[in-house]
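Two folds, back to back.
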Amino acid sequence: MTSYLTIGRVQVAGGRVVEERIIQTEAGVVRYRPIDGLPGYWVGDDGTVWSTHARGYRGGIRNDVWLPLAFFYTAGSRYRRIRLNYRPSNRYVHRLVLEAFVGPCPVGMQCRHLDGDPHNNRINNLCWGTPDENHVDKVRHGTSPVGERNPLARLTAGEVLDIRRQASAGVTHRRIAAQYGVHRSTVGQIARRTNWRHLS
């Protein structure tokens, strides 16, 4: 982070004024802002995070030697995190980007990845939204854990369609349940489209 095109100050949410660095990179122009309350850390509108800290918790700050931080993922998560020399030490990259370039997360809101790619943490792909909006995004992008993508699912899409076919033909729910090894109530919910509603 040394080829500065512009070093200025901008007003952010809440009326605070922060320093902003605009830098020319191989991929284009990137804006960087300090992470609020975390000296020695800057986040870019391209989703990168930079630091002057030495490795390890309570590591010292170098003399303006900026290095990019490596991302990591927790088990079962597809969202990028980084480790900081502050507590809590693990932070989601998408939240750091939004907080720096949009403002704090409003109460009850979540981060939305507009293209459905949790690795794309560019500011033009992120926004705060309601849990319902986030759920609609996931359904639209095919990333919602519905149907066979749900790790707890005991039936396949084909079996669900067959259950509906049998139920509409008058086969009792008890008999269908015994055939597929599920409870009668499950068959009823499938027949009424309470469950597996995404299947036509």
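---
second:
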Amino acid sequence: MAIKHLAAMMWGFLPNGVKNLEAAERFWNGYKDEKGKWNTGFITLNAMGEELFEKRLYQDAALNRRCIVFVDGFYEWHHFFPIGRKGQRLKTPTKYPHHIFLKDNPLPFFMMAGIWNLWKHEEVNNETGEIETIITPTFAVVTTKANALMANTIACIAQTFVAIFAIAATAAATHIILCSVGENRKLFGYTITVHKLAIK
């Protein structure tokens, strides 16, 4: 039987090959190598369910480290391209956040599928100057193709839709994460609130 418990994790799946926080920024945002070639970054906040077993980055986690993410809602961004003074459509969009949540939900949360990894990295201790090995739990929300409601009603603002699980699905998970959008914790440009709860 899988062991289930609540855990606080960092949003943004990271493999152990990423050496430190600086390398994590490069991994996510991309970088230029010594020859000036641009290496595209990997956005690992979400993992597409259709590719979980095809991408080496997620394969092992999909098989062995699944989780349930408890949230009170999430945001999708509508990109609107305004018309300029000369009547041309501008290239830079204006972004409008849309808060997505379950209507008439009797619970203060709903559940999303996720995968996680214990990211092992080395960081310099600012006080001692010594290199320390740190283990940071990281996770990604599993997504799938948008359903009719998300694709049509909200005018295609969501190209993918989070995989929402029923309560029975917790049997397939080893960890439970609680998080909501807020202002309490900023993680690499994404601000979320992580709630720690203890259960017996």
